Amino acid sequence: FYFTGIALGPRRRLDIPVLFIPNTMKLYEAQVVIHVTRENGKNWPCEDSIKLNKYLKSITLAENGGIRGIRWIYPVHGIPEAPQQKSVSAVVRCRAKHRVEQRVEVLLTGVVPGAGSNAAGVNVNKPANKQDEVQVTSGFSTKVEFQYELQYQSDKIKSQLDPLVGIHLMQKNQDAESETVTLIFNIVFSPRKPMRNAATLVVQRAMGGIWKFPLLFIAMEPKVDDVINIEAAGLNKESVVGFRLTSQRR
């Protein structure tokens, strides 16, 4: 698309709207190119146009050595994001001071070339065996097919849950007929005290596309460590019992 004849005064700002309407879950690339010339048609004077053109490739020089135009080039990456479904969050539940492993399946649609839908679903089941042939990573990188991370509602919740939660992508199943991909994650949760916090599992494909799935981590009250019985020595007499506490940290 080309738009010409836009006048911009000195120290004024030009807003350029960019509209993105993807029809498949893949990366789209474009460039916004802005070419500026003087309104009166004259060139900007330049004392050393040859040296300037060597370091600034965005200028357009005239035959007399002046600057006829200046260009700004802005690359644009369009990454489709699937709408988050109003589904029930996958719940990971565990007693405090215990550890639980749980398998979480997420459904990605629109990842197969030519697919046009972009819905998402989530399913929770028991742990499964690890598949070594899946090329994945935790965090974001352009060298792998899928990347994933857990996002939290605040930095405070992140600092609380990060040491307690581990997530690993175990398996990837692709169905070309239904144009879907199922990712199976293994989530480890080992809380130290009761809590209830929400999180979002964000999955991003290297070729483009983002999917988000709600998670809920619930830590219940821990079991009683022990029962201390104190027998009375008599009325108005003290009874004493001793027990040992061991600290697991410094």
TrEMBL record:
InterPro entries to which the protein is assigned, alphabetical: Ig_CFAP47
Domain CFAP47-like immunoglobulin-like intervals: 81-219
Cellular component terms (Gene Ontology): cilium
Organismal lineage: Eukaryota, Metazoa, Chordata, Craniata, Vertebrata
Protein name (record): CFA47 protein
GO terms for biological process, alphabetical: sperm axoneme assembly
One Pfam family hit: Ig_CFAP47
